[in-house]
Amino acid sequence: MPAEPATVTGTDQRPGSQSALRRRNSQRIIRALMTSGRLTQAELARQTGLSTATVSNIVKAMVDGGLILTSPTTSSGRRALSVTLNGRGAVAVGVDFGRRHVNVVLVSLDHRVLAEDGVELPLGHQAEEGIEAAAQLVRRLLVDTGADAGSLLGLGAGIPGPIDHRTGKVIHGAILPEWVGIDLLGRLREAFGIPIFIDNDANLGALAQVSWGPYQNVRNLVFLKLGSGIGAGLILNGAPFYGNIGVTGEIGHATVADHGLICRCGNRGCLETVASTSTMIDLLSRGRSEPVSTEDIVRIALEGDPAALRVIDDAGLAVGRALANVCNLVNPEVIVLGGSLTGLDAILLEPVRRGLLRHAVPAVGESTELAMSGLSNRAEALGAATLVLQQAELPSL
Amino acid sequence: MPAEPATVTGTDQRPGSQSALRRRNSQRIIRALMTSGRLTQAELARQTGLSTATVSNIVKAMVDGGLILTSPTTSSGRRALSVTLNGRGAVAVGVDFGRRHVNVVLVSLDHRVLAEDGVELPLGHQAEEGIEAAAQLVRRLLVDTGADAGSLLGLGAGIPGPIDHRTGKVIHGAILPEWVGIDLLGRLREAFGIPIFIDNDANLGALAQVSWGPYQNVRNLVFLKLGSGIGAGLILNGAPFYGNIGVTGEIGHATVADHGLICRCGNRGCLETVASTSTMIDLLSRGRSEPVSTEDIVRIALEGDPAALRVIDDAGLAVGRALANVCNLVNPEVIVLGGSLTGLDAILLEPVRRGLLRHAVPAVGESTELAMSGLSNRAEALGAATLVLQQAELPSL
Question: Where is the HTH cro/C1-type domain (chains A, B) (predicted)?
């Protein structure tokens, strides 16, 4: 499932050569263990597509090298060898930068969450503030877990805005306008001094579903993040999909109201102008002395407030209709809803499903599973850590 | 670019083994030659990602086996070895089944069109009639080219309807309702007695653009077929994309008019109900003694008929708007328009581009190339032949 690292250099590492073959097979095994944690040799063979003999040979060499650990276990009642990476204390960092928060997770090579925490940030904060807050969190969590800063493999960061792969910069229209156009990769490298990997937050939410969530075997999945912005992350044929310039899943900018409100992207009547939490807050704050918060919306809807229920139903229908277009186009197996409204459960899922089934080609709508994310607000940071596990230089290969 | 054949059986062909490696490398070289025709060894190395040493070794073995032919040439002023498959008379058949036609092409292993022809069929014809017409065409073209029926590698067929990969059947809502639910693969196998590969016609149009058209190096391409139905074929990361059940690119069924006409898919106000050639024919036939044909529409629009120009402009805008959603989601590098209206050129392209730019996220719309297909009505049949070149059992491996 994971994408191979982008660069393979040197003649002996050309894809057709013997040494490249052995290296690729070893990497497959390590990536599988990073992604899934503990596996038997038989499971490793299945996941990597390698023969059990090849797996067994490579595992033996890696045990000798101290790179992995094995222990006897049973599988379907038979004796088996359970394999896990010797984490050697190596740690991957995942950071989720939001409009009003930053969340951090530390994960180990053997696919365990070591520590996690987050802080709130003021609306409209500059990129520097977000980066500094993340750096403080990472330092504190390292101390808490007793890990060593030298053990950091790399840092993955999720950004709530599309990233143009031609320039590596957040493009105009991002939910964090203060972050547009800055050299984020450079700033993060400077602040942390370790390898940095960045991606759009919805893409990372999708990646988290197939690496930490219950969908490890799903090859085509859409993660829809519904918050003050609306964006989707796509897993197609088992890997995150980036298209031509890296800007994919922008369903928040489907036109749904011809003469609707002007959107931050420059167009008019986009889905975001009718179904984002910002729009819900606007609608439900009228006539109140204090504006409602996203948490308030969830609370009063669960209490049965008719205005909140109506606003959520309308938003859900609009989102479902946009998802129908997504299904008609890329026909995913599963759609997972994430963002700040997951606590609404059926109150939100039901109108989304109604909109989806009403507007999708019947055979497609009926065969698509729709579910609420079970990773709550950790999805993006976990996906960011997966970026590191999938793309960072592998230790001592 | 081509997908690997689906089945690899036997322990010695597990992806990690030596013999599997050599087999895969040989296949890469053959597939590259099938797809591109004649290549130098250096170009082969670039296209397959193999080292020049590996390419040279395999080419040598294949020359000894009589499978390929080499000849001296020059490349950038230097001496080089040009490699081509020894076609040995092997032929791939591509068939495009339409609502009122069937087109057939015969192509050789070394990527040349040997013969092509088509016949018109009555609207509402049964699958049997279409298959029999195709069989007659194939027999005649074989005689014309002096090829032997024993030399047929396989037959690819394009169907104007979505194919459910779970059952292999055309699903409800296809443009050929008479073909829904029949076991097409079985019928074609019976009629031709050679390996059969089928796909949706829009998918094959997309495949033709990257195998026979000018877009051989484009990794993300959308082919939009605009005719009595509207459907898209997707090339994502260099290969046709099929999603979960095989039904992708169904943008003709995006809802664009809430209280619009009932669509053959069972929904209401789909793009097809406002922008298909059937709708154009309905609109432009009112008040005429004879209904206009698609060819008439092209002709009178080129003559400047105001009603035709208005109908095409409205349809183009609606198609462009739907394509904006496609761009926002999968961010292709190129969109190619095909179907029965390609003769309209700028008259159709211009409103499509206007709709696309108006509704796409600006960075995405501006970076997407939009062009008319240069393969005219051969695209689908050529794509069907490519299916065979990519998926048929390779000769004497």
Answer: 30-58
Q: Residue B126: which CATH number?
A: 3.30.420.40
Place of tokens 């086996």: B65
Final residue belonging to a domain, choices B65, B85, B105: B85
Same structural domain for residues B227 and B285?
yes
Closest-CA distance of chain A to residue B261, Å = 14
Domain co-membership, A328 together with A196: no
Are residues B266 and B320 part of one domain? yes
B232/B275 same-domain check: yes
Q: Indicate the average pLDDT of chain B.
A: 89
* Structural domain for A36, as ranges: 20-83
φ and ψ at A131, to 5 degrees?
-65, -40
Does some domain include residue A4? Answer: no
Query: The complex's ipTM?
Result: 0.88
Most A CBs within 10 Å, among B55, B169, B244, to test the A interface: B244
Residue A370, classed as helix, strand or coil, is strand
Domain count, chain A: 3
pLDDT of B63 reads 86
Distance CA A279, CA A287 (A): 15
Residues of B in contact with A27 (CB under 8 A): none
A236 and A342 in one domain?
A: yes
pLDDT tens readout for residues B243-257: 999 999 999 999 998
Predicted pLDDT at A177: 74
Measure the CA–CA gap between B358 and B351, rounded to whole angstroms.
10
Task: Find which of B17, B361, B367, B369 to mutate to test the A interface (most A CBs within 10 Å of its CB).
Answer: B361
Q: How many CA atoms lie within 13 A of B330 on its CB side?
A: 32
Is A14 part of a structural domain of the chain?
no
**Binary contact (B329, A329; C-beta < 8 A):** yes
Count Cβ neighbours within 10 Å for each residue of A304-324 and write b for 16 or more, e otherwise. Answer: ebeebbebbbbbbbbbbbbbb
Q: Considering only CA atoms, which of B239, B227, B13 is closest in space to residue B100?
A: B227
Residues A314 and A240 in one domain: yes
Residue B313 included in any domain: yes
Task: Give the pLDDT of residue B31.
Answer: 80
Our measurement of the distance from residue B277's CA atom to the centroid of its chain's CA atoms, rounded to an integer in Å, reads: 20
Could you say which residues of chain B have pLDDT below 50?
1-13, 397
Residue A333 forms part of a structural domain:
yes
- Among candidates A276, A268, A177, A253, which has minimal Cα distance to B363? A253
| Helix %, strand %, coil % of chain B (to 5) | 45, 20, 35
Q: Which of A45, A65, A83 is the last residue of a domain?
A: A83
Of B54, B359, B368, the CB nearest to A17: B54
Q: Are both B220 and B346 inside the same structural domain?
A: yes
- What's the gap between Cα A178 and its chain centre? 22
